[in-house]
Amino acid sequence: MSGFNPGTALVTGASSGIGAAYADRLAKRRYNLLLVARDGERLSALAKRLKAEQGVEVEVLVADLTNRADVRVVEQRLRDDAAITMLVNNAGIGPKGKMLDDDADYLENMIELNVVAVNRLAVAAAQAFSKRGRGAIVNIASVVVFIPERFNATYSATKAFVLNLTQGIHAEVAEQGVKVQAVLPGLTRTEIFERAGGSVDNLPASMVMDVNDMVDASLAGFDKGELITIPSLPNENDLAQLTTARLALGPNLSHSKPAARYGVNVD
């Protein structure tokens, strides 16, 4: 394995939580790393540890992905650096409570990070990797895409965007040598709750997954070639049935006349 070089993985939100766990696991897979986050001190500490433990090259890129200028810097690196073979699009923030009680500026910031930045980086990676004929894009979504009624409306909408984006990109790049995966974690033990003013300890322990277990399961799904990975889902047929039902709508989603059940313009 000493001569094996899968390339460089760019991981956003890498200073803690899911991003840091991905960095650790990918370093063990011999990826060199480009770690992106706002907290340069924590990134540098993680980089130093992974270099020492795994002997891989680790570069730190301090960027605030709610700032569009910073997003452009990371985007350009994806486009220009042919050594980058994987994007882990992980950076994101969660809600502080119900949408009706949340601050509109905070929700807009959430959209900047969870949607605008994710989209630009995923598109840049898809375009660059397709031209190179290899690469992988991992977008971190959430299980809330399936139960939006139970969560902050803006947050669940941002994660639905990530899932749809991933599925759409896959349809365009699957034949270009690019792997794409959407990871849909459930509740995961990370700092995202504290940053939103809550605590993971207030949640039922039986519903909260260890972050390393979550990432290990996600990488196992990646190795299996899954387009959508739900680490806590026991039966993969449940997701397959949902996909089949969704696709079955296809032939009837667009006709020249309204459905007869509406009783309008059906002559």
Automatic annotation (TrEMBL):
InterPro entries: NAD(P)-bd_dom_sf, Sc_DH/Rdtase_CS, SDR_fam. It catalyses: L-allo-threonine + NADP(+) = aminoacetone + CO2 + NADPH; 3-hydroxypropanoate + NADP(+) = 3-oxopropanoate + NADPH + H(+). The keyword Oxidoreductase applies. Keywords: Oxidoreductase. GO terms for molecular function: 3-hydroxypropionate dehydrogenase (NADP+) activity. It holds the Pfam family adh_short. Its EC number is 1.1.1.298, 1.1.1.381. PROSITE patterns: ADH_SHORT. PANTHER family: NADP-DEPENDENT 3-HYDROXY ACID DEHYDROGENASE YDFG (PTHR43086:SF3), VERY-LONG-CHAIN 3-OXOOACYL-COA REDUCTASE (PTHR43086). Belongs to the short-chain dehydrogenases/reductases (SDR) family. NADP-dependent dehydrogenase with broad substrate specificity acting on 3-hydroxy acids. Catalyzes the NADP-dependent oxidation of L-allo-threonine to L-2-amino-3-keto-butyrate, which is spontaneously decarboxylated into aminoacetone. Also acts on D-threonine, L-serine, D-serine, D-3-hydroxyisobutyrate, L-3-hydroxyisobutyrate, D-glycerate and L-glycerate. Able to catalyze the reduction of the malonic semialdehyde to 3-hydroxypropionic acid. This is NADP-dependent 3-hydroxy acid dehydrogenase YdfG. It comes from Rhizobium grahamii.
